[in-house]
Write a structure and sequence with these properties.
The protein has nine helices and eight strands. By secondary structure, it is an alpha/beta fold. It has one domain: P-loop containing nucleotide triphosphate hydrolases (Rossmann fold).
């Protein structure tokens, strides 16, 4: 079928990136991690003392945006894209709890979101893109041919986040992860600029009891069921 845009939104630690990466690989599409873009801005602010003890002046964050160059580069060794900030691979650094504890606050800044949307739409102008985030289907690509809204039970998400961090050698407290998750949910759904909402035409995917392969096959079936063209996408294994 014709190349399409796939928008995946949802709550923190729902496995959006895992699913998006798998879809992109299966379909030979470009994967864009919008969350990594906000994390990169947050990392820069932390490194340059623009964020101090979770406090910052929005105008100072806005002022540094022109200095930032964010790109994604495919790493064949891990079969996945990695995030580069000003030509430095920051994939590991942007996944820390310190960044996680501050990124939703940075993402509430209207000018930051507007700056991001310009870049994200440029990435997706030729279609053949899978992008995940919190306002992709509702704002960045409102005309995306397929929109997925992911959710899962809170305890499941906490366990997944703990597993993700510990597998990377990051040891964190359960209550810290729980607080971070609930704080991010609140900030994401209550910010004034493009809050996390389900787009009216998005398909809900509750993956509380689904493994990675079941989620992937669920979405592949949705793609195959699309009647936007006469062609059919046939996934190859």
């Amino acid at each position: 079928m014709s190349r399409i845009t796939i928008a995946i939104d949802g709550y923190s630690s729902c496995g959006k990136s895992t699913l998006a990466k798998a879809l992109a690989a299966r379909m030979n599409y470009t994967y864009i991690d919008s969350g990594a873009m906000y994390r990169s801005v947050t990392l820069y602010c932390l490194r340059n003392n623009i964020i101090v003890k979770s406090k910052f002046i929005p105008e100072e964050v806005i002022a540094i945006l022109p200095k930032l160059k964010i790109r994604f580069e495919f790493n064949p060794n891990i079969l996945s894209s990695e995030t580069f900030l000003n030509d430095e691979n920051v994939e590991k650094e942007i996944r820390t709890m310190e960044v996680a504890n501050n990124v939703s606050k940075i993402a509430t800044i209207k000018e930051v979101r507007e700056w991001m949307v310009v870049i994200q739409r440029e990435y997706g102008k030729d279609k053949g893109v899978v992008m995940d985030g919190r306002d992709i289907g509702s704002h960045v690509f409102p005309n995306a041919e397929l929109k997925i809204f992911m959710t899962a039970d809170a305890e499941v998400r906490i366990d997944r986040r703990l597993h993700e961090l510990t597998s990377k050698g990051v040891h964190v407290d359960y209550m810290d992860v729980k607080k971070n998750l609930y704080d991010r949910d609140y900030q994401d759904t209550h910010r004034k600029a493009n809050p996390l909402i389900r787009a009216k035409d998005a398909v809900v995917l509750d993956n509380s009891e689904l493994d990675k392969e079941e989620q992937l096959e669920f979405v592949i079936k949705l793609i195959n069921d699309l009647t936007l063209t006469k062609d059919t996408f046939s996934p190859s294994h």
